[in-house]
Design goal:
The complex is a heterodimer of chains A (499) and B (139).
Chain A: H1 2-20, H2 25-28, H3 31-45, E1 55-61, H4 66-79, E2 97-102, H5 113-122, H6 153-159, E3 163-171, H7 175-181, H8 203-212, E4 218-222, H9 248-254, E5 258-260, H10 263-268, E6 275-278, H11 297-308, E7 315-321, H12 323-329, H13 333-353, E8 359-364, E9 368-369, E10 371-373, E11 413-418, E12 424-425, E13 432-433, H14 441-444, E14 453-456, E15 462-463, E16 467-472, E17 482-484, H15 487-497
Parallel strand pairs in A: 1-7, 1-8, 2-17, 3-4, 3-7, 4-6, 5-6, 11-14
Antiparallel strand pairs in A: 2-16, 8-16, 9-15, 10-11, 12-13
Helix pairs in contact in A: 1-3, 4-13, 5-7, 5-15, 8-9, 11-13, 12-13
Chain B: H1 4-26, E1 27-29, E2 34-35, E3 38-39, H2 41-46, E4 50-57, E5 67-71, E6 91-96, E7 108-121, E8 128-138
The chains are: A alpha/beta (499), B alpha+beta (139).
Chain lengths: 499, 139
């Protein structure tokens, strides 16, 4: 494939040489110029795959909008010793088609992760804080569940004989993984529903029902406390939370599902029976803090694809990097970056383990955050750190920090709101006031550093800004332009049903 | 190539030396009391001694109290991440000399106290801690 591309690139070089000959040598001999020509050749050489997708992998980095993804690109590039800006993430190569996604919910300009993941799993936009219920359902109102349940992509492909898998670094009962299988009037009904609510079960119970019924074949992530009776010890060292006293892990085991609570146990399982893996009481650890006993997102991705690939009819796998979102909520970009980096490695692995011929891979985010980028920083400025001025010569930034009107340096990234706010509550009053701390580069580069924020809030918020979508494999070329988020389902649906 | 790190290192050499000397002598970072989710060697070596730790005061559990929780990052409560208040695993329970005067959760403080290690359940609050500072003061 690579040699074909080179030949096309050469051919194109010949055809454009006539036009380029009049241009100054300094222009046509520039790497930028030749790389531009090569990219055009690659795009021309891209062939539409109109075959039927045997497998679909939907990869969602929670909260990884265009801005957060940009920051991850620079971080990963800089970790590899590059300046960063020029780095290409695994899904940013020219063999991926891409587009821009509008993420709002039916009733929310700023979306939350439940209806956004639900839109991708059902083909219709949904309401704020609900999962997979139609537009007439009302948040927190169990009486509006009946008759509003939507059918999920997982249910549809199960009926067609495919296997289904879920991987997440959040709790498996959390919004994005839950959107694969659950229908709930409240995304927080993770292990209980209000008294008298009989129209739906809690999300953990729905997941185990999905596993015992044969819909979900492998589920790997966090959240064992919601599968463990209240006050009973969880297998992960904490305490159970289920008010109904049900032991859902035992129920799963009784139904013939294999269970693992850490990486060693996961690696010891055989591949012949369904797998439930729960590594933590709540969310899986941030990648920056993850102990070696916990599987990483890459470990989970590998096991899930190996397991699911055994089905000749194919599979649907949703993979979520859930904690990119949580670290952004904390206003702590260093942890966002570490979780973002392993996310990109998981995408690369999923691509490597599958064939473009029969596997549609969609890479996207559910929403963006209130993350912002300051200027004017020189090339190679560490993305999580303070902004260096632009150098007059060469590429690398100047050694001089850029200063704000208060004479103090500032980080490239700031958040519009959150706990990093420079405004602090004054004693005995509701007024918030303050000035920006004078931060050193060493402090700004620290793993625990919170980038400065403006509006004081206990948790940094999502934003309604667009996210990107990238796709390769059968019918990936349907992804393009500026699309509504629910269209992603329709791409997957078309791909698996193509004649 | 003169890369970003080389530049950074040379540029920051002077201020880094100055500030790290201060940090090592006087103030321990809260995270250094833990090794992932276990007690660190540094903490074990400092058990029973008066140490100073930097961190943030989580919103107090109770008014008029001699107790607060020190966190390594501001304790933000995210309604979309959690359905209930979850404490991080790496915190320090602080028992103060005087009734505490709450400090906003995102203002850094330095707490000085006698380091105690090992699981302990507060008889009044039911709060379970692994690392504590007692006879503490903060600024």
């Amino acid at each position: 494939m690579k040699s074909l591309l080179s030949i096309s690139a050469l051919a194109l070089g010949v055809s454009t040489a006539a036009m380029a000959q009049d241009l100054p040598q300094v222009q046509v001999s520039s790497d930028w110029f030749t790389q531009g020509q090569e990219t055009i050749a690659e795009i021309i050489a891209r062939e539409k795959n109109e075959g039927r997708a045997k497998n679909v992998i939907l990869m969602i980095a929670d909260g990884n909008g265009v801005g957060t993804n940009y920051a991850t690109r620079l971080y990963v590039g800089q970790q590899l010793g590059k300046l960063g800006e020029e780095h290409v993430l695994p899904y940013e190569t020219n063999d991926y088609y891409n587009g821009i996604v509008k993420t709002y919910n039916i009733n929310a300009q700023t979306p939350d992760s439940a209806p956004t993941a639900g839109a991708m799993n059902t083909g219709v936009k949904q309401r704020f804080n609900l999962i997979n219920l139609g537009g007439d359902a009302v948040h927190d109102d169990c009486s509006t569940v009946a008759g509003n349940e939507l059918t999920t992509f997982a249910e549809m492909v199960t009926a067609a004989g495919k296997s289904v898998g879920i991987v997440s670094t959040a709790r498996l009962t959390h919004a994005t993984p839950a959107a694969v299988f659950s229908k709930s009037a409240n995304r927080n009904w993770e292990d209980s529903v209000p008294e008298g609510c009989t129209a739906q079960k809690d999300i953990a119970a729905q997941m185990i029902d999905g596993m015992t019924s044969g819909m979900i074949d492998i589920a790997l992530g966090g959240g064992s406390r919601y599968f463990t009776p209240k006050d009973a010890p969880t297998p992960n060292g904490g305490t159970g939370h289920r008010p109904d006293g049900a032991d859902l892990i035992a129920e799963a085991k009784d139904a013939g599902i294999q269970y693992a609570s850490n990486l060693e146990e996961l690696n010891a399982l055989d591949m012949s029976k369904p797998i439930l893996g729960l590594w933590t009481d709540s969310h899986v650890s941030y990648e920056a803090d993850r102990p070696a006993t916990e599987p990483s997102l890459v470990d989970m991705t590998r096991t899930a694809i190996e397991f699911l690939s055994q089905n000749e009819e194919g599979f649907y796998l949703e993979i979520e990097a859930g904690r990119v979102d949580h670290a952004n909520h904390a206003g702590n970009f260093a942890r966002t970056a570490a979780d973002g980096m392993i996310w990109t490695e998981a995408v690369a692995l999923a691509d490597e383990m599958t064939s473009d011929e029969d596997t549609l891979i969609i890479v996207t985010a559910d929403h963006e955050h209130a993350i912002t980028f300051n200027g004017y920083c020189g090339r190679g400025t560490p993305i999580q750190g303070l902004c260096y001025k632009v150098s007059k010569t060469g590429e690398m930034h100047s050694d001089e920090l850029a200063l704000a009107a208060d004479g103090k340096p500032y980080s490239v990234i700031t958040y519009a709101n959150g706990s990093g706010s420079v405004l602090k509550q004054t004693e005995g009053s509701n007024d918030f006031a303050g000035s920006r701390p004078d931060v050193s580069q060493e402090e700004a580069m620290d793993l625990d550093y919170l980038q400065q924020a403006l509006i004081p809030m206990e948790s940094e918020t999502h934003s309604g800004e667009d996210v990107a979508v990238y796709a390769k494999g059968p019918w990936a070329h349907l992804v393009g332009g500026t699309i509504e988020q629910n269209l992603i389902f329709h791409v997957m649906d078309h791909a698996v049903n193509a004649k | 190539m003169l890369n970003r790190r080389t530049l950074l290192t040379s540029m920051l050499a002077t201020p880094m030396l100055a500030s790290s000397a201060f940090a090592q002598d006087d103030i321990i970072k809260l995270r250094d009391l833990y090794d992932r989710q276990a007690i660190s060697d540094l903490a074990k070596a400092s058990e029973g001694q008066r140490i100073s730790v930097d961190g943030y005061m989580a919103p107090p559990l109770k008014a008029e109290s001699n107790f607060f929780v020190l966190t390594r990052r501001p304790m933000s409560v995210c309604p979309f991440c959690e359905t209930e208040a979850d404490w991080p695993s790496d915190i320090v329970a602080v028992y103060t000399k005087r009734i505490i005067k709450p400090v906003t959760y995102n203002v850094k403080i330095v707490t000085s106290g006698i380091l105690e290690l090992g699981a302990y359940r507060d008889p009044e609050l039911g709060f379970v801690s692994l690392v504590r500072l007692t006879d503490a003061s903060y600024a």
